[in-house]
Amino acid sequence: MRHRERHRSDRIGWLRAAVLGANDGIVSTASLVVGIAAAAADRSEILLAGIAGLVAGALSMAAGEYVSVSSQSDTEKADLALERRELATEPVAEENELAGIYVGRGLDPELARSVAKQLTAHDALGAHARDELGISEFTTARPMQAALASAATFAVGAALPIVAAMLSPTRSIGPIVSGTSLVCLAVLGALAGRAGGASPLVGSVRVTFWGAIAMGATAAVGMLFGPTVS
Question: How much is the pTM?
Answer without folding.
Answer: 0.69
